[in-house]
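Batch job 17 of 40 flagged for manual review because the log was empty.
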Amino acid sequence: MIAFAAGYVLDLLIGDPHWFPHPVRLMGRLIAYLEKKWNRNRVAGGVWMCITVLFLTGIVTSVLFFGCYALHPVIGIIVEATLTCMVLAAKSLWVESRPVYLALESGDLDPARKALSMIVGRDTERLDRDGITRAAVETVAENTSDGVIAPLCYTFLFGPLGGMLYKAVNTMDSMVGYRNERYLYFGRAAARMDDAANFLPSRLSALLMMLAAAILRIGSKDYHPILAGRIWKRDRYRHKSPNSAQTESTCAGALGIVLGGNSYYGGVLVEKPLIGDPLRPIEKEDIIRAARLMFVSEAVMVAIVEAGLFLGYRLFF
């Protein structure tokens, strides 16, 4: 209970300092090295990359976690809280999406496109103001599951080991899980693992976002919890991924805007269906509104987990 709550608070306070050797960056270097070495073997190489990354992540995390608890419980709690903080990305997502909003507020689209390119995989050069805003909102919505709720779920169920293994799967998918000539076969195993790992958390995230919209509705009429549920039910599968549209559709409904639509990736047009109903035009403030949905969803999830842990503790002890 202490370590889980402390990790959550620590992420809100410090996020992902660039000076700290974050495990995800180390995973990224390992994945890049193995991709260069084994990509010639296509599907088999991708499978071996997944096995290797998960094995090394599990070994290092287990030795660190159990070793520190063996030294002293307080040391173990500190390390567990730190590892929990490292698998969460709420503060980092806000820090990286806020420059897009600030650039749009200043009226200069070039800095906005540059800031957006740091958090999305699509081409940003030809995006207009609405396209930039839409891409930023979609990223916050999708990562409410991938970067916040899913790691919370796996950390709650399996401790920091579960959280780190999930981050390894998610990082592999973000680096090689693309349907292009280079990664179509090599990244297939990573993409399928990520789809499986996010299947339940993405749907839980959608439900939490609906509840968050209802909470935020108390203080702001900008949120529409009933419409969020309606759009989620209708549009939750309007995406090539079985999971991404779960939170994107909920966010679109909660804000009363349209997300999705065609985008360019590496100069290639990718056709994607529209998600949501246009109650109003999208605006730069929707980036902040989407971030609020993310933070409140996370807070609700942590409150539920902590209440469950407390009741379980009182029941058995």
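Reviewer: the log was empty due to a logging misconfiguration, but the result itself is present. The radius of gyration is 20 Å. Unflagging and moving on to job 18.
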